[in-house]
Amino acid sequence: MKSSSPLKWFGSREGLYYLALAFLLVIILPLALDPFRLNMVGKYLTYAFVAIGLVMCWGKAGILSLGQGVFFGLGGYCMAMFLKLEASTPEATAIQSTPGIPDFMDWNQLTELPWFWEPFHSFSFTLIAVIGVPMLLAFVIGFAMFTRRVGGVYFAIITQAIAAILTILIIGQQGYTGGVNGITDLKTLMGWDIRTDEARTTLYFICVGMLFLCLFVARLVQNRKLGRILVAMNAQEMRVRFSGYDVAAFKIFVFCLAAAFAGIGGAMFTLIVGFMSPSFIGIVASIEMVIFCALGGRLSILGAVYGALLVNAAKSGFSESFPELWPFAMGALFIGVVLAFPNGLAGLYQSYVIPLEDRLLKRKKPEAEPAAKPAAAQPDAEKADDYDPMINSYSPEKS
Amino acid sequence: MSAAKSKGKDFLLAVEGLTVSFDGFKAVDDLSFYLDPKEIRVIIGPNGAGKTTVLDLICGKTKATAGSIKFAGKELTKLKEHQIVHSGVGRKFQTPSVFEDLTVFENLEVSYPQGHSVMGALAFKRDAAVIEAVEEVAETIFLTDALNEPAALLSHGQKQWLEIGMLLIQKPDLLMLDEPVAGMSVAERKKTAELLKVITRDHTVLVIEHDMQFVGDIADRVTVMHQGKVLSEGSIEHVKSDPKVIEVYLGH
Known about the structure:
heterodimer, A: 399 residues, mainly alpha, two-stranded antiparallel sheet, 2 strands, 68% helix, disordered N terminus, disordered C terminus, B: 252 residues, alpha/beta, Rossmann fold, four-stranded antiparallel beta sheet, 10 helices, 10 strands
């Protein structure tokens, strides 16, 4: 039961789990928290986008990427470039030697906006780039790696190297990227001040909305045959190949999907936090993202959301009081998850809470239909929901 | 797909001069053999003779160093694995490789020859035709009652059947089975032989097997391999009485 059916994890109660999450994010947290704390939760949620992508990519398809920060960062930088350009009007930057370009460029003796910044004057281009740029890079990496059948640890190392390269590149090219400080001092989005409490609360709700959109897409993929092929590929790549599938294409697809989610998360991060810097995209940040996913449960997209929320909340709480201890706590957490409950919180929920729910449901059943004895072969009932036309009874014929 | 003309005769599969060399070691050395449509051919031979490598070469898992593999008139050596599958070649591996996380139904459904592209797999619907095909194959492979079971819970023999079923649902013209009865009980062996009889009514089958009793039960013709080459070929009686075969494989 434990490892056998990740796909069956969502039973008929699935809808309720989504409602519960929506209730928590849309009603409870906004009522319970002040705007500052709510903004923090919004920031945690932006990591949930990455974690959902990792569930699809790593949990389902078995492709461990230790460089998701790259895609998160690309999405975030795309949004930050747009906001920075909007903040750098000639009037606002009149004291610079070249007015009208971002301040850090002026400090770095640039006298002209670099060509690749130009399109980011357009908001619609920016929205496309937030998803498109990470996907494009993921496609290039995926195409180069997966068609050559690079996988497993080697792939993880390469993604990590790419995270390192991108960080070094951004820090090194200060005049073009804002360097180690990142792109800061972002003010308005299409004239709307994003620094006010109301704006931050609105952005929080937009973030929740986008998150549910991504959850919906991820759920669609995992419930289709495509999702079953991803799971199948994880364990028996050879068999999938010899069942007539081009395995590389499926890997590229899921890697691009995860990159797109991460890009959206990064863009929301920039909006909610108000700046973007290389520290959010490097190796450490990327590995932390894997931990969010692992803790929440790498087979469950909902689990990943809770994982991102809890680890980040713990990080804030912990580092407020013992800043130097947090990295150790984080390490211990990861080791603990891997050793004690490899399927994370979602796995624990499945092993301990779901049987409880089952018992509660079953206790109600005899009232509804008195004919059914509780001791009868009920365990199959839940499975049968998966597809109707199937015969329900099973008689093992072990010879 | 029907068999095309190859060298004037209707072979389904024509392997000619096939050679593969691993760091100078020729696992398969200038091998040639021909399969007629609807034939059951069994390859036997001592360990290391290159039997499994031949199947690997045909299905594209290993790339040939030299030689040609013509299947229904199509050259397979240049194609990728999934393209070879689409041309109508199905391959079963020695150890049962089924998708343990999926149910028997889902295993067969994933193998159903439709929606092989990423977008196709996203749009794929479990319609009546799919369900009918799955149920039909499940009956052939004796797993009708296990359709809802995760494949991980099947016995070893049942997994072997499931993998054969996963090939059948692809509707291949050529089925390649690598030791289909290895590790099976006597009862399961009998059932598997029956299964193969049913299958061969409308498929060409290439089987690797060690069990001579089983070989005698199913084979139309037998190819004996030794050191990457064909040692002998013909009916089971012919092969059994061939002194070279007795020398290297069957023993005195």
